[in-house]
Write a structure and sequence with these properties.
It is a single chain. This protein folds into four domains: 45 residues; 112 residues, no CATH class; 81 residues, no CATH class; 129 residues, no CATH class. 31% of the residues lie in helices and 22% in strands. Strand 7 and strand 8 form a beta hairpin. The longest helix has 47 residues. The chain is α+β, with helices and mostly antiparallel strands. It is built from seven helices and 14 strands.
Length: 392
């Protein structure tokens, strides 16, 4: 019994000594570890603000900042700010660090991580050094990567706006989607904020896009940067519209368009590539065609082939000019090929003809998807030729 008590006492003493030693070690090493961590963090910050002497984190919840901002730091001597942002090009999760001095000029920008397939975005930030907000759009883009570079530029703009806000200024930080929604609601309050983009089957001269109110109260016509509201009967609500009659006529044309289904089984050559076909009373065509993207051609242990086609809807004049384009369905790789469902991609085909439809920005890292989409567009041209009595 005495031996047991003695052994227990020895064990307790050893544990006490070890605890004291660990506490002492932590007391000595903790500041060193913290200093090393701060040095490592400051190294990344100094990369985009080389003249910085120290940085302190900004509490983001105290400000209304662009949605892309994930971290912000104030340079302690008043030199400016460093902003960390998360955005997306053709792929998700592009992380950018940007420094902005107190005069609103970029001191440096670097891509910390990216899922883009091009490597040039790693050094692309060098192009923004010494640029202010007015000069960002003029920075050269990376060839074949318009969306990647556009996302990079927008992130730098967000960093510049963040610096203004943190410095006590005011900036509109709404997203493009929020701005669109606000403009639509302002142009047609009767729409109660619920709008869908109209798939156009008729050519509307000088009109870039049309949105219809889901409650069927009317339309909003986009003409450049102007949003023009019109009731369902064509009455134009927006003031100072140069050609209100043209808007009224466009609303009437949209509502009066008659569309007839075409029996594609009468065209055996089309049944394998065309999902459906229609014709307007004015002689335009609406066809849905298949394209073999990654889902058909690809497939490996990382991205299994879906076995599904890309389905594209195209409206086209009888002489072969695309009026509108829309991705109906796709089963491409998430975060990569599925960019074909974005209007920034398929909208490129509007206004194209058989001679120039291939002159579009490809989806970075998704060659099969891009080629499959072009194949669907090519089949749309061939279908319209056949349906209109021309040679396919």
């Amino acid at each position: 019994m005495k031996n047991s008590i003695k052994n227990l006492s020895v064990f307790v003493c050893i544990c006490t000594v070890m605890t004291l030693l660990l506490a002492l070690t932590n007391t000595v090493t903790a500041p060193i570890i913290l200093e090393n961590q701060n040095a490592s963090a400051n190294k990344a910050l100094l990369e985009v603000m080389p003249d910085g002497t120290g940085f302190e984190a900004v509490a983001l919840e105290d400000y209304t900042l662009p949605a892309t901002v994930t971290e912000a730091y104030r340079e302690t001597s008043g030199l400016g700010y460093v902003v960390k942002l998360a955005t997306a090009g053709y792929g998700p999760d592009m992380v950018i660090m940007c420094g902005v001095d107190s005069s609103g000029v970029v001191t440096g920008a670097v891509c910390l991580s990216s899922n883009e397939t091009l490597s040039k975005e790693k050094t692309y930030g060098e192009n923004f050094i010494n640029k202010d907000a007015a000069a960002i759009d003029a920075v050269d883009t990376i060839g074949g990567a318009t969306k990647t570079t556009a996302a990079y530029k927008n992130a730098v703009k967000d960093a510049l706006n963040t610096a203004i806000i943190l410095g006590g200024g005011s900036v509109d930080v709404r997203t493009e989607e929020q701005i669109l929604a606000d403009n639509l609601a302002a142009a047609l309050p009767q729409g109660e904020g619920e709008f869908e983009k109209t798939f156009l089957v008729e050519e509307l001269e000088n009109i870039d896009a049309v949105y219809y109110a889901e409650n069927e109260s009317g339309y909003v016509f986009v003409i450049g940067e102007q949003y023009v509201g019109a009731l369902a009967d064509g009455t134009v609500l927006t003031e100072d519209v140069e050609n209100a009659d043209a808007i009224t006529d466009a609303a009437a044309l949209i509502q009066s368009t008659v569309i007839e289904e075409i029996d594609i089984t009468a065209y055996p050559d089309l049944t394998k590539t065309v999902v459906s076909a229609k014709k307007t009373e004015t002689g335009n065509y609406i066809v849905e065609t298949k394209g073999a993207g990654y889902g058909i051609k690809g497939g490996n242990e990382y991205h299994p082939a879906s076995g599904e086609y890309i389905i594209v809807r195209v409206s086209m004049t009888a002489d072969g000019k695309i009026i509108d384009c829309l991705t109906v369905s796709e089963a491409e790789t998430d975060g990569l090929g599925d960019a074909c469902a974005s209007e920034s991609f398929y909208g490129q085909f509007v206004g194209k003809t058989e001679e120039n439809y291939t002159e579009i920005d490809a989806i970075s890292g998704a060659t099969m998807t891009t080629d499959g989409y072009k194949q669907a567009i090519e089949r749309a041209f061939a279908a319209v030729k056949t349906l209109s009595g021309g040679e396919a």
